[in-house]
Design brief:
Number of strands: 0
Pfam families: Fe_hyd_SSU, TAT_signal
Strand content: under 5%
Distance between the termini: 51 Å
Number of helices: 5
Radius of gyration: 29 Å
Structural class: mainly alpha
Subcellular location: Periplasm
GO molecular function: electron transfer activity; ferredoxin hydrogenase activity; iron ion binding; iron-sulfur cluster binding
Shape: flat
Number of domains: 2
Subunit structure: Heterodimer of a large and a small subunit.
Keywords: Iron, Iron-sulfur, Metal-binding
């Protein structure tokens, strides 16, 4: 069995990675140009139809055009100091609290948690 090629794990992974990359890169080159153009044309048509459908369904497409937002941030509105004001920051900003220590303590007690 001396004729069997000895290859290390690192060598195998390197070769397998290069083969996978070659397959991914070369796979797109095998597609004939007309079908690639047809696929791109289909994507363009799909995008335009989605935009048209959204325009028909949603009358207000931008948040800054929403009349309720304009009223809230208006001169006499609740957040009249503006979108980046102190009150809006206090009310609309979210905070992160690290609760991993409590979860670890529960797991140490044997509590089964569903995540």
């Amino acid at each position: 069995m001396d004729s069997v090629l000895a290859i290390s794990r690192r060598g195998f992974l390197k070769t397998a990675g290069m083969a996978a990359a070659a397959a991914m890169i070369g796979g797109g080159m095998l597609v004939p140009a007309p079908s690639r153009a047809a696929a791109l044309d289909f994507v363009g048509q799909r995008q335009s139809s989605v935009y048209e459908a959204d325009a028909k369904v949603y009358k207000i497409r931008k948040s800054q055009d929403n009349p309720m937002i304009k009223k809230i941030y208006g001169k006499e509105g609740f957040l009249s100091e503006g979108p980046l004001g102190h009150t809006s920051h206090q009310l609309l900003h979210t905070y992160y609290y690290d609760r991993s220590a409590g979860v670890k303590a529960l797991k140490a007690k044997g509590v089964q948690l569903k995540v």
